[in-house]
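Hi there,

I know you've been waiting on this one. I reran it after we fixed the sequence typo, so this is the corrected version. Both the input and the resulting structure follow.
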Amino acid sequence: MAAAIEVSIVVPVYNPPIERFQSCLKSVIAQSSDAWELVLVDDGSTDTAVLNELACVERRYDRVKVIRQENAGPSTARNVGTRSASGKYVTYVDCDDELPPKAIEMAVSKLDEHRPDLLQFYVQYVTSEQQKIGIEEVPVVALSNDQVRRLRGRVMSGRMPETRIRNRRAVMKNGPIARYVRTDIAKRVPFPPEIRVSEDTVWNLLLLNEVDYLLVSRSIGYWYWTDLESSVRGYRPNAYEETKQLLKLLNEMQRSHLTAVPVDDYYERALGEVNRCIRLNFSRPESPISEREKRGKIRDLLDTIEVSRRQALRSRSVVWVKLVAKHTLLASGMVGPCYAVLRAARAGAARVGQGKRWLNVKGG
């Protein structure tokens, strides 16, 4: 007799590299527990190999659903998959990543024991098979209200907690992956389909408003394959419009007492999004606009941020001075130096305040 479905695994699919997609599917199908269903949402794929793979797994496995739609983006695909989910919990996997072999077994064990609203695992970035660390049995930590509040700030700023597990870097990823969300909560917190960049940030902030009982497991529950040619890092012709739309939404969320975070976290995220726009468009050779137009658009984005440099400097804190320095550099409009210096500054800032102290969990 087949096990009851405890977890619905939702995977949006749009023309992934076929080898990575096959590895993703194998990692789910080979799970040590069979208390899952796999919901594959084909978001208008055109790659014949991908389409053939979808048809094959749909025919072969009873616990695999394939939903087909015209291309609408990953947010819409995840929403469609969530509405189709029949498990008690939903988790999201990208179509070019993998789950460790015992990920579902471990998650179901913790979910059955504690019945949280949200269970969070750590993510390991991998570039080769040899780097992979399997999931381990470790105690889970229930976050206090203060820790959830601080987590909200980290979600906004992008400075998510990191730790070391068996001497490997592990990250609490700012996205839907490595999370097991109660299905009823997931269904009432959809991903924002109108946002095409940092939609994960918006979704996470909205999700944390609905969560009363959040558990964290200091164990690797997801393998995130890094790819320098991914769509997140490639040239985006509409980056300016997408960034402006996101900044306006973040402003609205910041004005609401339900979704507001510490203003320095909002300010850091907003400046980071302007930097992302530079990285994905203005600093790229494919960008067709002049340097003068780029400077004007950078200043327009900065004017959209609802924190002024004068307001920021009043705090007289080191963090604020650094943020104002970033703001000033961006406002200079020197696109090449902007990106190079900001990238280095952000990498340095990400190492400050990271780690495990905020969870009161000892490192390994």
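Quick highlight: Residues 239-351 form one domain.

Best,
R. S.
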